[in-house]
Amino acid sequence: MSPRTLSNPAPLRDRIQITCHRIWCTRLPLLLLLAAIPAADAQQQVRIGVMQLFHPHQLVLEQDSGQVLAVATDSKPASLVLNGEPGRRQLIFRADRNRVVVGSRSALSWTASARDGSAAAFRLSVPGKFHRIYRGQLTIHSESGELVAVVRMDRETAVASIVAAEMNDSDPMEALKAQAVVTRSFLAAGPRHPNFDFCDTTHCQFLKSPPPAASRVWSAVQATRGVLLQYRGKTLAALYSSRCGGQTRSLRDIGMEPGEAYPYYAVPCAYCQRHPFTWHSTISNRSQNPKPGNETRRIQEARQWGWSAIPGSDFTVAAEAGGWQLEGHSVGHGVGMCQLGAVGMAASGASFQDILAHYYPNTVLISQP
Ligand SMILES: [Zn+2]
Ligand SMILES: [Zn+2]
Prior knowledge:
Distance between the termini: 34 Å
Order of helices and strands: HEEEEEEEEEEEHHEHEEEHEHEEEHHE
Bound molecules: zinc ion
Radius of gyration: 21 Å
Helix content: 10-25%
Largest sheet: 12 strands, mixed
Shape: globular
Number of strands: 20
Number of helices: 8
Structural class: alpha+beta
Oligomer: single chain
């Protein structure tokens, strides 16, 4: 397992309400990553694969904010228009093996954008389950009877959408900026999937609808525009963790060999030390003793028992009738920036540079035009 196979944590909003019951299992099937996939392009755009968790057979596309959408197939440009008029308010895409059907038309792929081909705001939904607003250019194709929706968007829009998912808009501005730099660095370090760059789960970066232009999150993204975290001249796909439990961990601490990659460091976290936290869980299985301290092993065990059974890799185990009682103090892998610790540092007057220097020793910040 390489450092890049580590997943990032669930959003802060969920974290605060913690969270032994959060859905973690979705990240695992995507852990096989590719290290050298060409990026979307040089225009600082990213391609996000969205809604794959739902394995959708049907997707509904609608306008947002009244913007006209031009919808085309791989063979016919601008064949349909969504403009809000009767009969032109939404389109339903259905998977038919490796093709995608809209009404009576079938194609290998469909695209939707503004009329001039640029990014547009639109609403995409899995009927009865989920919907989200995106801003970008949408492509839909089908693989083995499931629809694959990919949104190409400006990288800064993606950064803002991710920070909005990871932090509260009311969090201290310097913590929002630190998260923005970490998120941007993760995206700039390179893609992690073959057919798009990143997914929208915690395997890559959980993502919400773009926040309002007047939000504090957008201010933090704009204030750090182009700023990246680097180690030895390479942008770092920076890992971060929900709640470190008092001290962050190096890759070796969690049983991973960094090689030439950034090794991460164990640094103290004042906030978590001042705000101790304990989770408990029970595993009803006596055949195998859960063992703490190793992230690779935690992932293996979580596959067996579920992520909610072992929220962090640092815990104690006690035998009880028919199973094991676990008690832990950290959530996530504990590697890199502790998000609660970052909020705590910012509340105490630290700048985003201070926060990043603390949690990522031996890195530098660069500004990319
Ligand atoms: Zn992913
Ligand atoms: Zn911490």
